[in-house]
Amino acid sequence: MATGLPSQTQVIELLDAEFTRAGYEIDDVVIDARARPPRITVIADGDSALDLDTAAALSRSASALLDEVTTAAGAYRLEVSSPGVDRPLTVAKHFRRARGRKVEVTLTDRTVLTGRVGASRADGFDLVVKAGQAGWSVRQIPLAQVAQAIVQIEFAAPTRRELELAGVSGPAGNVDTEEAGA
C-alpha cells in the first residue's frame, strides 16, 4: 500500500464488530487517497436512523481503531454517514428500513408506482398506493419484479389512513412495534 491507508476490506474487517455492537452494518467504504488529506468514508445503515450523536460516537471509535493501522499514513479524514436518500432500494432489508417512506418503484414490466412502503418480507413488500379519488389500497410487490426503487422527498404530510395501511402510526411516523420485526 503506497498510501499507508488500509484497503476497503481491511477497514470493513477492522470496524465491523464496533458498528454491529451499535446496531449498524457497514454498507460501503470509500477510500480517496488523492484527497488532501486522504479521506475514508464509512457508510453505515441500520434499522434505526443514524443520528448525529451516534455518527459522532462511531466516528470516534472508528478513528481510534484506524489510527492503530494508519500511523505510517499520517493524517487522514474520516467520515461516517448514512446512505443518502437517493440510494436505490435493492434488497429486502432496504425496504424494511424504508417502512413508512414514500417511494417510486419501477417494475420489470416498466410500470411505475408511487406509494408508501408497508410491511416487508424476504421476498417482497407491501406498497400503499392511491386507489381512486380518496382511497388507498395495499399492493404486494415481489422483489423479483422490482427494477428500481428510490425514496422520494416529501413536502406534504401523508394521510392518517395511508400511514395506518403502511403499519406506521403517530405524527413522527413511528413503526408499530407489533409488526416492526416483519
TrEMBL record:
Residues 20-86 form the Ribosome maturation factor RimP N-terminal domain. Keywords: Cytoplasm, Ribosome biogenesis. InterPro entries: Ribosome_maturation_RimP, RimP_C, RimP_N, RimP_N_sf. It is found in: Cytoplasm. It comes from the Bacteria. Residues 89-155 form the Ribosome maturation factor RimP C-terminal domain. Coiled coil: none annotated. HAMAP family: RimP (MF_01077). Belongs to the RimP family. Required for maturation of 30S ribosomal subunits. This is Ribosome maturation factor RimP. The gene is rimP.
